Amino acid sequence: MGNHSNTLQYRPVRRGTPNAAKAVKIIKFDDPDDSARQHADRDAVVPSPAGSPAGAARIWAGLDEPWREAFRQAWEALRTGNIAVGACASTAAGEIVGSARNRVSDSEGPPGEIFGSALAHAETNVLARLPFRSRRGLVLTTTLQPCLQCAAAIRFGPVATVRFAGPDRYWDGCHDFGRLSPREAGRAQPARIGPRRDELGAFATVISRLAHLPAGYEEALRALGEGPVVDLVRALTDGGEVERLAALDVAEGFGYLWPKLGDLSRILFP
């Protein structure tokens, strides 16, 4: 695998005044099947009371294995200087059939995955390794709301349900291909469950911004109401905390950031 082991590459974030956070659109799915409803019930969480990192341990202990694997992949992306997003494909019963991470900064990667390219996103890499027409009805679990490219890959893939932890206002709404043509409007779209309305959802969004936040992107995020996320990323990078985070495992990293996530989750999920 083309990981730059124990290295972390990120761009410093300039200061700015956060805009007032906008309400996150709750994405509902049409005509969910039983497996989607079961996942929705299991993932229906609310922000935890402020307190010690024991709350982080409780949330982590309550995750199913596809969620944990997606976050482990995202953490490996962070550690190797990539954008911290991870994804996992599983059956409706929770059997993992594949997982992958973002590899935009890697110089090599596993067979079948994209690396060193703007296309090397976690969800795309998971789906790229699934044999053509080998499975149907999979659940794709990802740490961040899919972008336009990944939403399109999901549309072509054997995915019945998409679960995502963190909201991404930059790409919100780009999954709705039914608006493109009458044919697409008439086809069943994957059920969508997310974002998680808790500290883990806020954690997923924060870590995805640590490695890549150029000025134009930052400006767009602030305009969309992600100013508090950008400000926290600035504080983490300026304070040298990103390196300390990378030395931890993902569950420990969640606990490390826990005191900063309560207020942020209430802003992201009013």
Short description:
The protein has 270 residues and is an alpha/beta fold.
Structure description:
This protein is of the alpha/beta class. The protein has a single domain (34-268), classed as Cytidine Deaminase, domain 2 (3-Layer(aba) Sandwich). It is 40% helix and 11% strand. It has a five-stranded mixed β-sheet, sandwiched between helices. Helix 2 crosses helix 11 (250-268), helix 4 (122-128) packs parallel to helix 5 and helix 7 packs across helix 11. Residues 1-33 and 45-51 have low confidence and may be disordered.
Task: Record the SSE blueprint.
Elements: H1 34-43, H2 54-61, H3 65-79, E1 86-90, E2 96-101, H4 122-128, E3 138-144, H5 148-156, E4 159-166, H6 182-185, E5 191-193, H7 199-208, H8 215-223, H9 227-238, H10 241-246, H11 250-268
Parallel strand pairs: 3-4, 4-5
Antiparallel strand pairs: 1-2, 1-3
Task: Record keyword descriptors for this entry.
single chain, 270 residues, alpha/beta, Cytidine Deaminase, domain 2, five-stranded mixed beta sheet, 11% strand, disordered N terminus
The general outline is: globular
Helix count, DSSP H or I runs of 4 or more residues: 11
**Strand line-up of the largest beta sheet:** 2-1-3-4-5
- Output the helix-strand order: HHHEEHEHEHEHHHHH
Strand tally is 5
> Helical content, roughly?
40-55%
Mean pLDDT: 82
Could you give me the name of the CATH homologous superfamily? Cytidine Deaminase, domain 2
The proportion of residues in beta strands is: 5-15%
Supply Rg: 17 Å
User: What is the CATH architecture term?
Assistant: 3-Layer(aba) Sandwich
Low-confidence stretches: 1-33, 45-51
| Class from helix and strand fractions | alpha/beta
CATH topology: Cytidine Deaminase, domain 2
**Major sheet characteristics:** 5 strands, mixed
Distance between the termini: 40 Å
How many structural domains does the protein architecture include?
Answer: 1
CATH class: Alpha Beta
